[in-house]
Amino acid sequence: MKLGIVGLPNVGKSTLFNAITKAGAESANYPFCTIEPNVGVVSVPDKRLDVLEKMYNSKKKVYTAIEFYDIAGLVKGASKGEGLGNKFLSHIREVESIVHVVRCFDDPNVVHVDGSIDPIRDIETINLELIFSDIEVMDRRIEKIVKLAKSGSSKDAKVEYELMLKVKKHLEDGNPVRTLELTEDESEIVKGYFLLTTKPVLYIGNISEDDLISGNVENDYVKKVKEYASKENSEVIVISAKIEEELSTLEDDEKKEMLEEYGLDEAGLDKLIHASYKLLGLMSFLTAGVQEVRAWTVKNGTKAPKAAGKIHTDIERGFIRAEIVSYDKLVECGSEAAAKEKGYFRLEGKDYIMQDGDIVNFRFNV
Question: What range(s) does the TGS domain occupy (predicted)?
Answer without folding.
Answer: 281-364
